[in-house]
Amino acid sequence: MLRDMEELLNSVYDDDVRAYLKEALKCYMSGSYRACVIMSVIAGGYDLHKKVKSLAGSNKRFKELDDEIEKKKSALEVYEKYLVEQCATEEIDMLNNNELKELQRCLDTRNDCAHPSNFICSPEKARDVYSSIIDILAAKPVLFGCKHMKNVIDEMEEKTFFPVIDSNKMKVIVEDKLGQFQKKAIEPLLKSIGNTIKNTKSTVQKDNAMRFLALSTDFISERYENFITDFIEKDQYEGELLRLLDINIDILKYLSDINIEKIICKLETNLTASEISNIEVWIKIILSDKLQDEKFIGSVAKNITSFKDKSLFTDSPNSDVRFQLVYSILQNEKCLEKFRNMIRNGCYKQFNLAHFEEFYLQNILIQLDDNILYETWLKAINCYINSSNFNYGNRAVNVFTSIAKEYWIDKVSLELKISLVMNILRQGKKDSNYYSHDCAELMWNLDKKYPKLVETFLDHIFENKENNDINEFLVDKYAKIISRYIVSYESKTESIINQLIELRDSNLGAKSILDEIKEVVVNSFQDEFKKSLLPKL
Predict the structure, then answer these.
(1) 13 & 131 share domain
(2) Does the pTM of the predicted model rise above 0.90?
(3) Of 123, 142, 161, which residue is a domain's last?
(4) What is the pLDDT of residues 453-502, one digit of tens each?
(5) Would you tell me the crossing angle of helices 238-247 and 203-214 to the nearest 10 degrees?
(6) Residue 51: which domain range?
(7) Rounded to the nearest 5 degrees, what angle is found at the Cα of 394, between the Cα atoms of 393 and 395?
(8) Does a structural domain hold residue 394?
């Protein structure tokens, strides 16, 4: 299909050049094909010279070429061939070899048309010259070659290279800069910018270069990976890699699976350290579309939940950085339910009390709000609350009070809650000078701070008078604290007192508890409920 010559005319950048080419089109339409060729080549020469002149103010070599062309014009010498050839030199670098050959062919055709000869210019030949001039010259802005890379890189030393802070606006600036270069110069330019990032001592230039490279993905998407391979493969550039990804996380979309695996490997290495540098960037990477893909999501979830073993018997100075990372991920609004569930499954492991002392693990439990995890947490506490080592008991109490009861009280088993209260009582009333003071303090305040636990315990004790637990705890040793618990359980206080009265003759502990309750009631002058119990006692 023949290209529409009028449509081609609309693609011309410069108004003056468009006027010449409009005349050339009129010549073509009237059948003056030689005139069309001549006018087209004149327009091309004029356009190319204007572009050289526009760059002369900022480049010495362009200034020299412009001066030479002006001299030739003043002397009425032919200048087009010279101009075209100079623009294809390495110093000017505005035309590639193919473009040079095509323009030389157009000049030869122009010469054939301009001089008396037997040359016949066909409509096809005229259209060919007309379209070549527009495609190679008139439809393009001023395009730089490789020689101008240094100018751009030098400009990056200025703080005003990016006069905006919005990344989308920065991206427009990057694409505008790249659009000023010939295609053949784009890759060398980006490679040179990559080298600048590695070698420059200027923090301003380095930051601008990283922004430029990070935001150029769309302009050269198919080969973009080539320009950041060094940053991925060499550990010394990990900081630069993370900065690039922080600027534009979509870089990951342009990376091969192999390079994504290398980044995941870097994550694994960071997880073995005492702290994670650039943790916010790693979170952004982990939650990116690329790493949340089926190919990688399972591996990532496994890595971040491979928590270190911990022992109560050794004081480890370092926290497991995975806990902080996982907690931060769970807080992030981009954490999808699928990934959250993978993390949840990764946390279904036998954590011990030392693990639960981790601040971030405590908060992970709250974030996941999972019955199984709360059960595991409370089991670890229960295991050590009545330890023979009072230090472990104190640590267990500290872990217990670290998570507000509202989160877990209705999500753990009755059996575990009952067992916990029993162990708190056993430790709090231990017949030894060595016991957990924290546990004892908790015991005396349990009815105020954890009334549901106390109520569950009392329901268990008095629901079956024949169980062994009633024999253990309805004794003088526990009379004072048990009586306190009973009085605080107002909805069932009277019922329990009735049961204790029935047991009074056969159980001395029951009598002691009733005596303690009576003392509490007698001293509660302003408490109508407690005073109402006095007749029973």
Answers:
(1) yes
(2) no
(3) 142
(4) 999 999 999 887 667 788 889 899 999 999 999 989 989 988 998 888 88
(5) 60
(6) 5-142
(7) 90
(8) no
